[in-house]
Amino acid sequence: FLDKMASALLALVLLTAEVTLSKGTNQCVARNLGHDSVVCECNSTYCDSVGSVALPPLGQYSSYLSSMAGSRLEAGRGRVRVNGTGAGLRLTVVPDQKYQKIRGFGGAMTDAAAINILSLSAGTQEQLLRQYFSPEGIGYSVVRVPMASCDFSTRLYTYADTPGDYDLDNFTLAPEDVKMKIPLLQRAQALSPRPLALLASAWSAPAWMKTNGALIGKGSLRGRPGGKEHKTWAQYYIRFLEEYAKYNLTFWALTTGNEPSAGHITNYSFQALGFTPEEQRDWVALDLGPALHASSHPRTHVLILDDNRLLLPHWAKVVLNDIHAGRFIHGVAVHWYMDWLVPAETSLGVIHHLYPEYYLFGTEACAGWSPLDRGVKLGSWDRAEQYAHDIIGDLNHHVVGWTDWNLALDQSGGPNWVKNFVDSPVIVDAQRDVFYKQPHFYSMAHFSKFLWEGSQRVGVSASQTTELEYTGFIRPDGSVVLIVLNRSSSVIQFEVRDLAVGFISSTAPARSLLTLAWNTH
């Protein structure tokens, strides 16, 4: 009888929740689709949103909680105490310990992402773009744009597929750019309260420029740095920037090429262009750097590597120790794959301490890429934790931004011409004209929504050993943001000490991600 009563009560609560949601509150329309947590479903007329976030006055704090149990950026407020509670665990903000400043967070406008967004009705497309880019969305400010095709395309192409076209007379953007990616980028920019930081990455040079005569597999540029293929490949980058500029889209940065190590792997299954660190160094020094400097886009940043941190510190040492290459370079771009093989301190930390004038930037990450855990998992909280753990680890080791991979995929994790299906924070169901916001969409939000550009990481010290993972920032307006991840299955009580304001008593529920924010004046 009690079980039946409990079930009836739960049904009533859920029914009430649906009624509440239909009145237009900003709560998640939760769907449990077979994994350890829920997705939030959105359509043309409704989507949950945290809204514009304004902090309470001095003496109070805001909290935002997401959890495996189903909370999604659940907002709360509390009072800052004058005295500590004597909690066993105290996290003390140390504002005098100053580190890197944030540049931004975002995702990639691949062909696949564009196809999926455009497969929805106009109203649902607008909802999806607003979720990422509008003031009530999660504050994405970085968009990575593949130069021509990658595996998340439906075909193989470059912008200069005419053999022997060293002057790039036949260079042309693809229909994928002109009809899909560019219009969506323009719409995203129109929604964003600040200029988007666009980041360009190429997967492969045209086949006729390459040693293997193909876009895929093991192959690099023919000839040597300083030679005609290398010069033409540098000019290809310039032409790309010029063509996008005609649509009023200018690029903050470009990378020297996606995953250059892949082009050295035998029979690599999709688009790749091999570079050794020595070749990359010389190509930047002799070709790309001078071409960019002489172009109409001399302020575009150049990021080297654009590959896994497994290759650090060796790769960066080879390139950055060369003054001819180093003067054209602004930062080191890293992907998150196989991060567990290399401690952040021995890769990111070492590079920061050796070359503090170059920033570290995360340019690609996705869940579901591993053969052991492949594809889309609708409602996986474990993947939300993977994201938060990696972002906190990166931020605590001097990384200034973190870019997710595809902005949206379909339910199979594509399209992808080589069937390299993965997961995405937003999964589209075009048949129902809905999209699902995955738990790791909210992981991104806990950082992207609150860590504005210019926010500076500061020290945070713990009074004792803890399972909590955390990072702290002071924003440009002087307010403080503390992000806390609890991957354990236990509730953890703690208090925060900020000498400027007092003490915050808080709780990290089991398997949760918590953002705390407060004013200091």
From TrEMBL:
Alphabetical list of InterPro entries matching this protein? GH, GH30_C, Glyco_hydro_30, Glyco_hydro_30_TIM-barrel
Q: Which reaction does it catalyse?
A: beta-D-glucosyl-N-(9Z-octadecenoyl)-sphing-4E-enine + cholesterol = N-(9Z-octadecenoyl)-sphing-4-enine + cholesteryl 3-beta-D-glucoside; beta-D-glucosyl-N-octanoylsphing-4E-enine + cholesterol = N-octanoylsphing-4-enine + cholesteryl 3-beta-D-glucoside; a beta-D-glucosyl-(1<->1')-N-acylsphing-4-enine + H2O = an N-acylsphing-4-enine + D-glucose; a beta-D-glucosyl-(1<->1')-N-acylsphing-4-enine + cholesterol = cholesteryl 3-beta-D-glucoside + an N-acylsphing-4-enine
Tell me any Pfam family this protein matches.
Glyco_hydro_30
**Pathway assigned to this chain's UniProt record:** Sphingolipid metabolism; Lipid metabolism; Steroid metabolism; cholesterol metabolism
The entry's keywords: Glycosidase, Hydrolase, Lipid metabolism, Signal, Sphingolipid metabolism
The Glycosyl hydrolase family 30 beta sandwich domain extends over 454-516
**Family the UniProt entry places it in:** Belongs to the glycosyl hydrolase 30 family.
Q: What is this protein called?
A: Glucosylceramidase
Record the organism.
Answer: Gasterosteus aculeatus aculeatus
